[in-house]
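sry for the spam today, last one i promise. struct tokens for design, 344 residues
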């Protein structure tokens, strides 16, 4: 099959012909229809993720059609499926108690096993997969596997957002934009933070109640002014020290910070613990979403309760994945890229 392979960190992925994936006994092989280009991939491409090495194939936001099924698979050849990026085992206490996104035996294609920057991808633990509705395009479905699902879980589980609350969003990439759209659907008021004015304009167009350009001064102070004392919930969507502290400091008393952005490097940063202590804040980590939450999310999208189309800005060929990753070295344009052509 044709795949984009990491050979040297921070250099273009190499388009190679590699062996087709072997089908797992408890899973399937998908012919990939679409795969998102995510900032988590960027961390792997730059060498900041320990499970990405020379020879790795990135790609964890994907959907496709089953071309081979293992003897213990739940799905069959021809099924069109969406994959969450965390493939949980289904047997451990975490899986059995509904928090499969914390499964200690999880598998994440692209990080330790070959991912979906390729024509085909092997998917073990196929009980995690859900059917791709006919009404949902592959490009939008690919984004569900990471950005939208992660944002949905962060808002509805970790932060437990309620109507009328102020939600601050630090960073308006795929996750941040998903948070905006979903928080507005939940009835929250949203203030969005970025350094790219074009992205702030984009956020206002899609419902942001207020925006803050982080280049223009004290972000936390401005959010406290806008919200009349601070946001009840703040979502950090970049994984860096500056935005994490702005997120903590912009909160009202008893506010909830949710760390969605994956910290780069060794993951360590200095955080304003005095703000957490004095305002008695809650500090949550979150990653992914249990697969059982898919049906409700898909139902809301189908009913038109939320329009996720603004998330995908462009569809690109496999050969353009490197350019998308390189662009993440600096400020990026609104929306995200999805690979939909694996021969180009």
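last one done:
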């Amino acid at each position: 099959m044709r795949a984009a392979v990491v050979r040297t960190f921070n250099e273009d992925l190499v388009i190679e012909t590699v062996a087709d994936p072997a089908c797992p006994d408890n899973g399937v092989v998908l012919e990939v229809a679409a795969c998102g280009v995510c900032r988590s991939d960027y961390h792997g491409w730059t060498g900041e993720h320990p499970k990405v090495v020379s020879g790795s194939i990135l790609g964890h936001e994907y959907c496709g059609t089953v071309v081979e099924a293992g003897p213990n698979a739940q799905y069959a050849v021809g099924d069109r499926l969406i994959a969450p990026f965390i493939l949980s085992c289904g047997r451990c206490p975490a899986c059995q108690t509904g928090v499969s996104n914390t499964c200690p035996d999880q598998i994440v294609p692209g990080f330790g096993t070959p991912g979906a920057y390729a024509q085909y991808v092997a998917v073990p633990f196929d009980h995690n997969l859900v059917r791709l509705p006919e009404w949902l395009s592959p490009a939008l479905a690919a984004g569900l596997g990471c950005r939208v699902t992660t944002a949905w879980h962060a808002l509805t589980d970790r932060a437990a957002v309620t109507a009328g609350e102020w939600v601050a969003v630090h960073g308006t990439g795929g996750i941040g934009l998903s948070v905006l759209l979903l928080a507005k659907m939940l009835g929250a008021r949203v203030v969005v933070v970025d350094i790219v004015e074009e992205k702030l304009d984009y956020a206002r167009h899609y419902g942001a109640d207020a925006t803050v350009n982080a280049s223009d001064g004290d972000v936390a102070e401005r959010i406290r002014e806008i919200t009349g004392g601070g946001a009840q919930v703040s979502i950090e969507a970049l994984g860096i020290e500056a935005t994490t502290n702005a997120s903590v400091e912009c909160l009202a008393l008893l506010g909830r910070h949710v760390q969605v952005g994956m910290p780069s490097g060794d993951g360590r940063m200095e955080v304003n613990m005095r703000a957490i202590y004095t305002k008695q804040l809650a500090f949550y980590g979150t990653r992914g979403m249990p697969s059982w939450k898919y049906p409700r999310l898909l139902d809301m999208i189908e009913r038109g309760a939320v329009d996720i189309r603004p998330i995908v800005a462009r569809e690109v060929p496999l050969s353009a994945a490197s350019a998308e990753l390189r662009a993440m070295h600096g400020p990026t344009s609104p929306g995200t890229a999805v690979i939909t052509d694996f021969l180009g």
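The chain has a mean pLDDT of 96. ok im logging off now
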